[in-house]
Design goal:
Blueprint lengths: L9 H16 L3 E7 L4 E7 L2 E2 L9 E8 L10 E9 L12 H13 L2 E8 L11 E6 L3 E5 L28
Parallel strand pairs: 1-7
Antiparallel strand pairs: 1-4, 2-3, 2-5, 5-6, 7-8
């Protein structure tokens, strides 16, 4: 809950605003991603809160701040995840000297980018400490999320999916 304070001067008003902002974000946590796919996650966001750009294939990354789930979990709770997949790194980079080769390389990389949006159910966190949100990017553009405070790979971490998943020959039709 927000602190009750009285602000009488400009200096105290600044302090009051800082106290309110701190209280509003005190329950907020980081946004982290775990990429179980062969594609780079160029960027992603959770409910409009941006996370760190580029998580390479079969890697984790994070650093976005400000995701705060509701104080109480409720059935049907979801988050909206927006993300872009593509290639990462400089594989096949021809250099800048030959402009035609460079432009073809850029065009090939751009053609592989895909935009995605998905509503993802948030598992019940009743009675648990919540530490932001972790999004798991799975093959076939599937997602899982958790609000667990444990790091990925810890015995208590709820998602047990291995980091390196095989590339499926086909994906279910959406």
């Amino acid at each position: 809950m927000f602190p009750i304070v009285r602000c009488r001067t400009l200096r105290s008003l600044v302090g009051c605003l800082a106290a309110v902002l701190f209280a509003a974000t005190a329950q907020a946590g980081t946004i982290y991603g775990v990429n179980h796919t062969q594609w780079a996650i160029n960027h992603f966001s959770v409910d409009g809160h941006s996370a760190v750009d580029i998580i390479g294939a079969f890697q984790g990354g994070g650093g976005g701040w400000g995701y705060a789930p509701p104080a109480q979990w409720r059935p049907g709770l979801t988050v909206r995840v927006d993300w872009e997949t593509g290639v990462a790194g400089s594989k096949g980079f021809p250099g800048f000297a030959d402009r035609a080769k460079y432009k073809a390389w850029v065009a090939k990389n751009e053609a592989q980018k895909r935009q995605h949006t998905q509503l993802v159910p948030v598992p019940d966190y009743t009675g648990q400490k919540v530490c932001g949100i972790t999004v798991h990017f799975l093959p076939c553009d599937q997602l899982q999320v958790t609000t667990s405070c444990y790091p990925y790979g810890a015995p208590e971490y709820p998602i047990k999916t291995p980091l390196r998943l095989p590339v499926p020959k086909t994906c279910p039709v959406k």
